[in-house]
Amino acid sequence: MDLIYMNPQRQDVGVLQNYKLDLAYGCDENDFELAVSMKNHVCAAGFFLYIEGTEYGGIIRKIRVKTEEEEIIYGGDTWHGILGKKILEPDADKDYLVCSGEAHAIIARLLQRCGLSDLFRASAEYSGLIIKSYKMNRYISLYDGIRKMLDTADAKLKILVLFLQHPAAEVEILVQIEIEIRIERRLACQLALSIPVIPADVPTRITTVEVGADIIWDVGDDQLRRWDPVFFIILHRIPV
């Protein structure tokens, strides 16, 4: 997967070579460190990094040198970390910030409220999730606020890096990056019916009901990725 770096105007500059990327995600740490050799030192503070179609990336905040290893270390905030640096405050005449409406529309308003709508955008798709009078904690980070709000609707935050292409000339293409925030259901339920070679006109009865959970693994791009658990119900039938 190509790790692309952009200037502060979010224009693609190039692809980093021979790097070591360490990203941390969680409630308390949403940052990264990227190590490159001194000869591959091409970024500056304020540059962005991303892997297209994934949540991996962020903004470089600081740069340090490891002289003995002849390495440059870029450190910064992931996309989640950028959201985490913004604080949601109630309006001046209110004790709490209360959110109601369709989930994507709420996220769009919160991004605008925190001054991040030039970098992030909420999905325009209808999420199917309606939030009713959710009361944010006072002075909570934007990341934690959205995450806790979605928890109440059994949903979670998903961040993807997508292209928005704008032709600047016949040959040259100016590519800017945005973050699309979508809602995805945390748990899925599958119903499977197991009928081993029994004609449709033969009466059957249920002998056992199997309920369980499985973890979905996806192999791609030379990596093994873990997805959310999928709960299943299997009905076993035999002829009567």
Q: Sketch the topology as an H/E string, one letter per element.
A: EEEEEEEHEEHEEEHEEEEE
**Strand segment count:** 17
Helix content: 10-25%
Strand content: over 45%
Assembly category: single chain
Largest sheet: 7 strands, antiparallel
* Low-pLDDT ranges: 165-178, 186-198, 212-236
Tell me the number of helical segments per DSSP (H or I, 4 or more residues long): 3
Q: What does this entry show, briefly?
A:
With 240 residues, this protein is mainly beta.
What this model shows, in words?
The chain is mainly beta and 240 residues long. The protein contains three helices and 17 strands. A seven-stranded antiparallel sheet has the order 2-1-5-6-7-4-3. A three-stranded mixed sheet has the order 10-14-13. Strand 13 (155-167) and strand 14 form a beta hairpin. It starts with a strand and ends with a strand. Residues 165-178, 186-198 and 212-236 have low confidence and may be disordered.
Keywords:
single chain; 240 residues; mainly beta; seven-stranded antiparallel beta sheet; three-stranded mixed beta sheet; 3 helices; 17 strands; 11% helix; 52% strand
Topology:
Layout: E1 4-6, E2 12-15, E3 20-24, E4 31-37, E5 48-50, E6 57-66, E7 71-78, H1 79-84, E8 87-88, E9 98-102, H2 103-113, E10 120-122, E11 130-135, E12 140-141, H3 142-151, E13 155-167, E14 173-185, E15 188-194, E16 204-220, E17 223-239
